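Here is one chain, start to finish.
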Amino acid sequence: MKSQALFDKMAAAVKAKGPELVKMGGAVFQFVVSDGGEAGKFILDLKNGSGDAKAGEDAKADCTITIADADLMAMADGKLDGMQAFMGGKLKIKGNMMLAQK
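Its structure:
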């Protein structure tokens, strides 16, 4: 799963700048890589304490983002526009959609 490297970068950023990111994020994000199995579930907590980033599921996430591994990497690389991915059905958002734009 190529997006694991992206999740690792998110975790490193939260460790380095957690409180700063919590001020900007203010929400718990659940990422689900649709073709990633259990390894494709990642929680990015930018709401509580100094933040947290880890593998797993959070049923109470403010925003759940579901996307295929290749599409997530294309978005991260700037090759796929988030709005186009959403409108084309490649990106699914559950919960507060406005948070996904952060």
